[in-house]
Design brief:
alpha+beta; 6-stranded mixed beta sheet; 20% strand; globular
């Protein structure tokens, strides 16, 4: 196994994003959390107000010998709507923005290329931003692995489950 790499992405509700990436081969961990805001150690309640500047994001630790950053980014763009500014469906606010947080110049270049590929698919309407790497605050324990623990919760059943099903249909060969 290669040394693990990590990437931070924000694509709406972190329950959805986490659930899409956890089942992928080569993905070792996915942590839900907050990034890109102005206050230290934000709580879920504070972030939900939209006044902290944080995005709900996930930190994905992956084995690059099994799944590449380009694959992860393409899956990211295929499993949320990167053309919606500061929202995903009924989740509205800057905390639900589509954003990428590069750890270095190589990640930035990969992210720029992924946005270009996504723009080819979405007719140039992608609003996903590349933002400076910031402190990633791991969300409260009850947010971790949320969908797997709460599949019958109404939001999970109505919103998360269809995203996971779409990911399985499109990327089944990459699933564990």
């Amino acid at each position: 196994m290669a040394e693990l790499e990590s990437v931070i992405v924000a694509g709406g509700c972190f329950w959805c994003t986490e659930a899409v990436f956890l089942p992928l081969r080569g993905v070792e961990t996915v942590e839900s959390g907050y990034i890109g805001g102005s206050i230290p150690n934000p709580s879920y309640e504070a972030v939900c107000t939209g006044r902290t500047g944080h995005a709900e994001g996930v930190r994905i630790a992956f084995d690059p010998d099994v799944i590449g950053l380009d694959q992860l980014l393409d899956i990211f763009f295929a499993t949320h709507d990167p053309t919606q500014l500061n929202r995903q469906g009924n989740d509205v606010g800057t905390q639900y923005r589509s954003a990428l947080f590069p750890a270095d110049d190589a990640q930035r270049a990969a992210m720029e290329a992924a946005i270009a590929r996504a723009n080819d698919i979405w007719d140039g309407k992608v609003v996903t931003t590349i933002e400076p790497m910031d402190i990633f605050y791991v969300a409260e324990a009850y947010h971790q692995n949320y969908f797997a623990r709460n599949p019958g919760q109404p939001y999970c059943a109505a919103i998360v489950a269809p995203k996971v099903a779409k990911a399985r249909a499109s990327y089944g060969a990459l699933m564990k």
